[in-house]
Amino acid sequence: MAKKITIENIKFADCPSAASECIDRAKKLCIELEDGNILFFPTCPFDFPQQDIDFLLKQKQNKAKNRKNIAYKPNHDRLTNADVKTHEEMQRLIEVMKNFSQKSSTFLSKLLTPYGSKWVVDYASFRPFEEKGRKLRIRARNDLLHTDAFPSRPMHGNRILRFFMNINPSEGRKWMTSLSFQELVEKYGGTENLPFPSPINQKMAARLGKFFKKTAKNIGFPVSLRSPYDQFMLNLHHFLKENEDFQSKGPKDHWEFPPGSCWAVFTDSVTHAAMQGQYALEQTFILPRDGLISPEKAPISILERVVGWTMTDSSLAN
Ligand SMILES: [Fe+2]
Questions:
Q1: What is the pLDDT of residue 211?
Q2: Reported pTM
Q3: What is the whole-number distance in angstroms between the Cα of residue 276 and the centre of ligand 1?
Q4: CATH class for domain 4-180+248-294?
Q5: What separation in Å is there between the alpha carbon of 285 and the centre of ligand 1?
Q6: Measuring CA to CA, how many Å separate 184 from each of 80, 98, 115, 238, 251?
Q7: How far is the CA of 133 from the centre of ligand 1 (A)?
Q8: Residues of the chain whose pLDDT is less than 70?
Q9: Could you give the CA distance from residue 165 to residue 146 in angstroms, rounded to a whole number?
Q10: What is the distance in A from the centroid of ligand 1 to the CA of 149?
């Protein structure tokens, strides 16, 4: 089960990142994350303007398609799913999301020095909807315990690290966490409803996949295909959300992240659910296996130890 590691009064200006005490501290924090714990910041650890928060709180998103979160893609400096009326509003929303993405990335690159040169800064999101009672199909619900897996963006063994900020001025964001990834695999992996992939089937699927990938590339649609690891992670995500027994009787810890607080966690290994809360910002980082302090603790390593064969195939990735 996850523990909360509170970090207060961090002052980076006093601590050049090359100093040995800073590197030691950074490594310790990375190890806490890799052990499945949550780094918690009672107040926002970087300067994020109140006028940016006020602007976000005014975004109602009533007509947003399927009520999806607003996503900011740093590589393209572009938003998806935003429901705004004017070009000026859109530009302002992009500016605010870019500011959050850049500031959170800069801060975490300093705090978690070993990761900063290895990770890819992925999408940021603004979550303007109340999570409690949100009407979503079961696999899209955030209030059911799960580990994260992206259906259309396979990770090929890379990790998903997420940094959250509760910008709600008056209400906490309520989470639950449950079993560690190792415990999930021991309890449910290889069962009828969550089988491990078969290496024989994988060989055939890989041959077909490579042919499909080559054809798609030739006609101008490059794709990244799921590895056996990605398929298992997606199956695990669905299995947990659809498992009523686990959702109702599984072990749970309850957390409340107060207004203005922030937290960081590897959401591909920490079983989590967002039970209640409205208005949160989030930045995702994709960290390769060789960027970890303890790669043997990563979900890919845990799974490969159990099945006894390599569950990724670089020729299926981009
Ligand atoms: Fe999640």
A1: 61
A2: 0.91
A3: 13
A4: mainly beta
A5: 14
A6: 33, 36, 26, 13, 11
A7: 16
A8: 11-18, 61-66, 201-224, 316-318
A9: 20
A10: 8
